[in-house]
# Entry
Amino acid sequence: MLTVETRHAVHPEHAKGMDTAALRAHFLGQGLFAPGEIRLIYTHYDRFSLGGAVPAGGSLTLDKVAQSGTDSFLDRREMGIVNIGETGTVSAAGETYRLNCGDVLYLGMGSGAVTFEGAGRFYITSAPAHRALPSRLVTVADCVKLQLGAPETANKRTIQQFIHPQVMQSCQLILGYTTLEQGSVWNTIPSHIHDRRMEAYLYWGMEETTRVLHLMGEPQETRHLFVANEDAVISPSWSVHSGAGIGAYSFIWAMAGDNVDFTDMDVIQPKDLM
# Structure
């Protein structure tokens, strides 16, 4: 079963007047992981799409998505898949890939139908592509790791880069995830915006009672979303994206836009946030 929700782009002036319910309706993705289903959100932010596939021991195939206007979803798109569950497989273009928890699969443009099987919980990201690049499985052992932050600022964290120029080629999709160390709560501090790219966060690895206070909005017009495990946040290019968690958590970040320079951002110091 496939369901697709469309999210239209929101102007920052419009976002200033939104109440909590409206902010959540436009920028928060919930319930993406349902057994026996593929659920997608097709956004008008750089035509980025995100969602979940949970085969639950069976088989699910993602092929035609009406919103893309093509015979198969990947005819003019690339895809990044993260397994956040138990071991499962993904098959495309005649190849089958085995993904353990935390592994990432990149599928290039033209890969055709994508089939998910096994016990995995597969987080799906996709962006338009301009050329076909080789598909590649990037395991946890293959990624590039960065250690950032410090205990005294409560943001000591490990960044793991998977679909990234230092690891492999993609058209515009960049993907990795960040894990906070014990006792650290703040992610992505100092905060930033990147006018040439949108970004999406998927929070995962959280206990049922854990919540993250996710900050969004223009730097001088910040808003917030309280998010739970496996909630996703859609972050427009004009919005900051950082937050603090109650309990352990990780988040998968994925970006699409004009370039793949990970450091292409405008840093906003905490003293300049309002």
